[in-house]
Amino acid sequence: MSGNSTYQPQSKVLQWFEKRLPIGGLIHSSFVAYPTPRNLNYWWTFGGILSMMLGIQIITGIVLAMHYTPHVDFAFKSVEIIMRDVNYGWLLRYLHANGAAMFFLAVYIHMFRGIYYGSYKEPREVLWILGVIIYLLMMATGFMGYVLVWGQMSFWAATVITNLFSAIPGVGETIVTWLWGGYAVGNPTLNRFYSLHYLLPFVIAGVVVLHVWALHVSGQNNPTGIEPKSARDTVPFTPYATVKDGFFMACFLILYCWFVFYIPNFLGHADNYIPANPAVTPSHIVPEWYYLPFYAILRAIPDKLFGVIALIASIAILAFLPWLDTSKVKSGRYRPLFKQFFWLWVVVCIGLGWLGAKPAEGIYVVLSRIFTVYYFGFFLVILPLLGIFEKTKPLPNSISDSVLGSKA
Amino acid sequence: MTTVSSAEHTRRDFLYIATGAVGAVGAAAALVPLIAQMNPDASTIAAGAPIEVDLAPIADGQIVKVFWRSKPIFISHRTKKEIDEAKNVNVNTLKDPEPDSARVKEGHDQWLVVIGICTHLGCIPLAHQGQYDGWFCPCHGSVYDTAGRIRQGPAPTNLPLPPYKFVSDTKILIG
Fold first, then answer.
1. Does A254 touch chain B (CB under 8 A)?
2. Which end of chain A is more exposed for a tag (fewer CB within 10 A), N or C?
3. Which residues contact A387 (CB under 8 A, 6 or more apart)?
4. Alpha helices in chain B (DSSP H)
């Protein structure tokens, strides 16, 4: 970590500073000279995209916080004042709300990439678990941010999600009262969610630093799943990865801006434009789309406590992935059976998302149960067994062989 | 980076510079809303619209305070004595020379309308105090006369006038 010998600052001033705080050397070794596998495809840009989205959310969030009022009597109105009166307020609000959606879109693609290419395997287990922690923090942050609007969906989402804790035997009700700060979701709840919503993104930033550090210890995975063997297998991060990522980030921003400027309310729920009414629950409560798969799993289980356990387990199981998958071959590219089960699992995840938005009745419940079984079965049954029984394709000798040999 | 002979500018150089330029324009454009959002918003500007004040209920010698754009405005219905005290001054001896006629509207000598914020460091001066019969600022001892002019103390300038006009003999529009 301390000073890379290949970094030589030009000016005397920079040399003086470098001796005292070698930030220049750190940035150089991490993002300029850093040896990057030469065969990375665009699925590897999503880490950078996520850092960019975190920055965008923090900046737009801080600026929105200058105009928002975290009190039950004023919160909804203050959001409308932002939309109508504050200079560029409409833009900042739409950037922040759609930014959250893009943040989750990017994180799901990032996770799917990790699962497909075996990026969670040895020696990247801690890197993966840090990622799971970041994901959990993101879910908490996103949930609390949505509550702040104090619309109908905000209020009832807060009520439903905090009520999950009442499933805990014995201490459940006490915990819920403690979370609420009252006898129901109310002003104390809103105030503390505001405080925590401002705090958690910086906690996320801290864990992201650990995540990138862990990444730089092992180096990036790559589409072959074979670690770099020589300098021929890698290229310096700048200019190759910098420019490639810069390009794809721009493409991602175009998609983001498409939502912000043309369909800014498409991903939201119309009921959240109705001020919160503690006496009336909307007929179709749904969370935002990025929570729908877990919502479907929760509702698939008929028992209250086991439904909550299934919900928590569906996320927590990710942390055990490095040990559940017994295959020595990392990348899905060389695992023909795994590939099929994986893509089926992706379809199941998306299917669960679709089902989460449907009313909890009839065929939707049946399908939710089937999909939930497959969701858990993928981790608990398929992955452990595949490692033992799957006949993998032959691996190339090295990264450069796979790139320079096979590419015509 | 691969070494390139500095004599020839390559296509890559052009692409780098062009991308950098567009990126710089984009970054500047992205900054605009972030900075502009701190300016007063539409509701604040609307709340700062001109206000009408009815002078009829203000008795002779009475001073009334109203707020316009969050600033206190002193409206003083000056007595004959106060008007004379304001006029009988050698303007050249004042720290901030201004004749009384410049501080009132023509034909309305008895109405003094000033912003009630001490020009020193922003406290609100107290009416009917100080040896010039005007205002006294308790924070650091500035003394203003019956025309709101600084006579003693650290304040550098006279109490400023807000924009206002008479819409009738008994009504003014401030702002």
1. no
2. C
3. A325, A326, A327, A328
4. 11-36, 42-47, 80-87
Q: Note the pTM of the prediction, 2 decimals.
A: 0.91
Name the token pair of A82.
């932002």
The backbone region for B130, taken as left when phi is positive above 0, alpha when psi lies in -120 to 50, beta otherwise, is: left
| Annotation says B140 is catalytic | yes
* φ and ψ of A240, to 5 deg: -65, -60
- Nearest residue to B73 via CA among B163, B149, B141: B163
Question: Chain B contact for A250, CB < 8 A?
Answer: no
Q: Summarize pLDDT for B57-89 with one digit per residue, the tens.
A: 999 999 999 999 999 999 999 999 999 999 999
For position A406, what pLDDT does the model report? 53
Strand ranges, E, within A152-279? 234-236
CA distance A60 to chain B (A): 8
Residues 6+ positions from A301 with CB-CB distance below 8 Å: A307, A310, A372
Query: How many residue contacts between A and B have a Cβ separation below 8 Å?
Result: 35
Domain A41-229+238-281: top CATH class: mainly alpha
Q: Give, in degrees to the nearest 5, the angle at Cα B46 between B43 and B52.
A: 145
A95-143 per-position pLDDT tens digit: 999 999 999 999 999 999 999 999 999 999 999 999 999 999 999 999 9
- Mean residue pLDDT across chain A: 95
Write down the pLDDT at residue B6.
60
Minimum distance, in Å, between the CA of residue B102 and any CA atom of chain A: 38
Residues 2-21 of B with CB under 8 A from A: 19
Tell me if residue B136 falls in helix, strand or coil: strand
> A286-395 domain in CATH 1.20.59.20?
no
Beta strands B51-54 and A234-236 are unpaired
The residue of chain B with its CA nearest to that of A64 is B37
How many Cβ atoms sit within 10 Å of the Cβ of residue B31? 10
Pick the CATH number of B46-174 from 2.102.10.10, 2.60.40.10, 3.30.450.40, 3.30.930.10: 2.102.10.10
Residue ranges per domain, chain B? 1-39, 46-174
Q: Residue B140 CB: number of other CB atoms within 10 A?
A: 12
Domain ranges of chain A: 41-229+238-281, 286-395
| Interchain CB distance below 8 Å, A63 and B36 | no
